[in-house]
Specification:
The protein has 270 residues and is α/β, with parallel strands linked by helices. The protein is built from ten helices and eight strands. Keywords: Hydrolase.
Length: 270
């Protein structure tokens, strides 16, 4: 395994690379870290170069200059450039799924296949319980600071199925503990996406697989249905028994879905 840190304007990105072969870049979920991919990396690295990193503002990449605007997509392309990767499969979970999606829209020539795992899609309404969970995060951050926000985030319905397993709950808590909470406090300076991703799905031209845990919250199931419907020729894979944290809850099934999605990309023209 190789690891390092790439300097970007206003911050830096901590990364790891395992295995050899056609590249895959993994993008983690909100307030989490690259460690959420621990259970899928060994299976993927048997046949691929697997790169995972902490997005700006999270994990080991948490420190950044709040006065410098940026986009996570630009950071992702910069990381690929720094590692000499000209074209890669992209796999993203939740927030990371939207980062991967927007990157594939902006730079399709850099993406061989797109695998969106329990991916967020802005502007799609959240179900009442999930919305209430998100509002509780902001409210507790205001009254208790980031520590309260982190506790409320771990109690969000998104993590319900994973929290049923004590080992997974402990791993989630360890990752969330590294998040400073700046998004919840309005201190992030990522450039807004305009138009919204949901309005650009017809621009996706790379082979796309949409993966959803069957126990995910209702709004994310709706998001996955919209992605599968509106991205041309997208394939929808439902993972039985898994919730929102599919890479941790059903890693073997996810590896199979990723490998089949990459195979779709290898058969696509160009």
């Amino acid at each position: 395994m190789a690891s390092g840190r790439l300097t970007v304007d206003g911050g830096s990105l901590a990364w790891e690379s395992s295995g050899e072969g056609p590249p895959i870049v993994l993008v983690h979920g909100f307030a989490l870290t690259r460690d959420m991919w621990d259970d899928v990396v060994p299976g993927l690295a048997a046949h691929h170069q697997v790169v995972r990193y902490d997005c700006r503002g999270f994990g080991d990449s948490a420190a950044f200059d709040a006065s410098v605007s940026y986009s996570h997509g630009d950071d992702l392309i910069a990381l690929c450039d720094g590692l000499g990767i000209t074209r890669t499969a992209l796999v993203g979970l939740s927030f990371g799924g939207q980062v991967a999606l927007l990157t594939a829209i902006a730079a399709p020539e850099r993406v061989s296949a797109l695998i969106l795992v329990d991916a967020v899609l802005d502007e799609v309404p959240w179900d009442p319980a999930s919305q209430a969970g998100s509002e509780a995060v902001i409210a507790r951050t205001r009254t208790e600071g980031p520590q309260g926000g982190r506790a409320a985030w771990l109690d969000h319905p998104l993590f319900g199925p994973a929290n049923e397993r004590p080992v997974l709950a402990q791993r989630l808590a360890a990752m969330v503990a590294t998040y400073p909470g700046h998004h919840w406090m309005g201190a992030d300076c990522a450039r807004p996406v305009n138009p919204h991703a949901v309005d650009m799905l017809d621009r996706v031209t790379v082979p796309t697989t949409v993966v959803i845990g069957e126990r995910d919250v209702p709004c994310f199931i709706t998001m996955s249905d919209i992605l599968a419907r509106d991205v041309k020729d997208a394939r929808l894979v439902r993972i039985p028994g898994a919730g929102h944290m599919t890479p941790m809850e059903a890693p073997e099934a996810l590896v199979d879905a990723i490998e089949s999605g990459i195979a779709m990309g290898s058969k696509a023209p160009g």
